[in-house]
Recover the amino acids of this structure.
């Protein structure tokens, strides 16, 4: 389990210094200057003929070695990122946590790779129901300069989701309303609509939750893939509360055809009533 | 895009790859030569020449990197245009990349891979196959074989062969992929190609094997691809005498299906 202390430590340790002030750059600069000096005035450093011949080659070898170490580190980062991403996709949360904690213990360059790792760590914390930790990480990501729009939206959506799950309703409503007012591409719109639906279900706003059911259903189907199951389940909960039991039962069947009921309930405790009331789809595999 | 255009672009690609390799070797040899020049007995003259030589090589390298970064930006633009479905503009940008110089092999390889994807999207499967084969030749001639890229190219090539009903060609294309260590993204590419091949070749039982794992992977695909894979798995289960699973998968396929979903089989 990732604690707040661990998250804070990882946030600090993974931050890299600006290129001009990092020890690596300074060492390379010094080596470069030494190489220049030996080439410009071979007798300046030593009178020994053999050393005079070998010194530039040795310095070049050290510079090449330093560059090779940097390239190897970048490859290790890329491999660890891929491995953590695969683990998250396959819901192997233990492996994902292990990979990410190990990766974030050292400075990560480029900044985009660090942000990607932190977003994955926030997802792991969210899955562990450590919402406070997830919020801390996401807030830190949102404070980073030069964040690309896609990542910014993903972080804002995730932050609003954790606020809802941890019952910080005022903050959650403000964040969701802000997101809802923005013009965004349809895949992001689908995630915001799902979040908005969850907000209405959590807050018992049944009328808002059952508005445009078919439109939302079509959007989830188009853009959320298997995660559309979460949308169908939340729509089922809303329709059940609105007394439309036939439609609720149909949507619960669809939801459990895509995602097993245990997984739905693990994510949204608010679904327990519909889970008890309506039959779920049997999985023959 | 005519055959002539594709052939011309492929020739450009092969020339650029050769220039790229030659330039890299030239730079390495120049640096090595600068350091290998033994100084004369008095020590000063040759060393000064070596220093000037080294600085000139490094400046030249910097210039090539600047030119290559501009080419890489055009390649990035082409990729964005392709993902937005603006194929004509993407084609122009890709032609620009393949006709420009780049010191980065990855830029040229990515651009040619995108050219193949573009031709595949336009249903010009024969042309796409030519592009994929040209890339594979370049990848294999490199010092390090790029497994991930090779797997992706082979799977797209196989998909093109399946689209024209050439089962032997498809098998030939993707068979080496089984000997590679595949990551999740390559496994996600392999799944629909393998299923299409198995169904077209009448290997329904094989297609329906390891079903839970295949469903798990299919769940990670976007809706249109997930719909297509579920429909193929349903067909495989029907063929393998598993009607309950087939019905379950068909119902799931309906839930994923969108107007953009590709046809289940060819």
């Amino acid at each position: 389990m990732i604690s707040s202390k661990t998250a804070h430590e990882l946030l600090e340790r993974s931050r890299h210094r600006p290129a001009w002030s990092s020890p690596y750059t300074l060492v390379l600069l010094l080596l470069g200057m030494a190489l220049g000096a030996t080439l410009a005035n071979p007798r300046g450093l030593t009178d020994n003929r053999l050393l005079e011949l070998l010194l530039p080659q040795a310095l070049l070898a050290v510079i090449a070695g330093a560059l090779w170490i940097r390239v190897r580190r970048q490859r290790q980062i890329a491999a660890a990122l891929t491995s953590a991403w695969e683990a998250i996709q396959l819901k192997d949360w233990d492996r994902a946590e292990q990979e990410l904690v190990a990766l974030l213990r050292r400075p990560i360059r480029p900044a985009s790779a660090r942000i990607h790792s932190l977003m994955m760590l926030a997802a792991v914390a969210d899955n562990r129901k450590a919402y406070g930790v997830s919020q801390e990480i996401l807030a830190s990501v949102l404070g980073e300069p030069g964040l690309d729009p896609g990542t910014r939206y993903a972080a804002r959506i995730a932050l609003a989701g954790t606020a809802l799950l941890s019952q910080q309703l005022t903050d959650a409503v403000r964040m969701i309303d802000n997101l809802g007012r923005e013009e965004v591409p349809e895949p992001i719109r689908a995630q915001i609509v799902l979040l908005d639906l969850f907000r209405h279900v959590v807050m018992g706003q049944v009328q808002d939750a059952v508005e445009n059911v078919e439109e939302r259903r079509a959007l989830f189907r188009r853009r959320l893939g298997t995660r559309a199951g979460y949308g169908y389940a939340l729509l089922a909960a809303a329709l059940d509360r609105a007394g439309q039991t036939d439609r609720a039962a149909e949507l619960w069947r669809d939801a459990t055809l895509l995602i097993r009921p245990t997984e739905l309930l693990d994510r949204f405790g608010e679904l327990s009533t519909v889970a008890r009331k309506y039959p779920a789809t049997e999985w023959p595999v | 895009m005519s055959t002539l255009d594709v052939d011309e672009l492929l020739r450009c690609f092969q020339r650029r790859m050769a220039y790229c390799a030659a330039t890299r070797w030239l730079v390495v040899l120049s640096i090595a030569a600068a350091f290998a020049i033994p100084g004369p007995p008095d020590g000063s003259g040759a060393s000064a020449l070596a220093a000037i030589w080294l600085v000139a090589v490094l400046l030249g390298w910097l210039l090539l990197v600047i030119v290559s970064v501009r080419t890489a930006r055009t390649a990035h633009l082409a990729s964005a245009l392709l993902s937005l479905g603006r194929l004509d503009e993407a084609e122009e940008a890709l032609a620009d990349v393949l006709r420009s110089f780049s010191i980065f092999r990855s830029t040229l390889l990515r651009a040619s891979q995108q050219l193949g994807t573009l031709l595949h999207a336009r249903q010009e499967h024969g042309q796409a196959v030519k592009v994929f084969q040209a890339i594979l030749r370049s990848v294999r001639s490199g010092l390090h074989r790029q497994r991930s890229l090779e797997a992706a190219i082979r799977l797209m090539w196989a998909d093109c062969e399946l689209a024209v009903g050439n089962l032997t060609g498809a098998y030939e294309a993707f068979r080496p992929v089984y000997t590679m260590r595949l990551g999740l993204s390559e496994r996600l590419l392999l799944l629909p190609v393998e299923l299409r091949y198995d169904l077209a070749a009448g290997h329904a039982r094989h297609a329906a094997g390891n079903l839970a794992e295949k469903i798990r992977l299919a769940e990670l695909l976007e809706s249109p691809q997930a719909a297509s894979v579920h429909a193929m798995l349903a067909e495989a289960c029907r063929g393998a005498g598993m009607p309950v699973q087939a019905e379950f998968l068909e119902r799931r396929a309906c839930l994923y299906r969108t107007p953009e979903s590709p046809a289940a089989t060819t």
The mean pLDDT of chain B is 88.
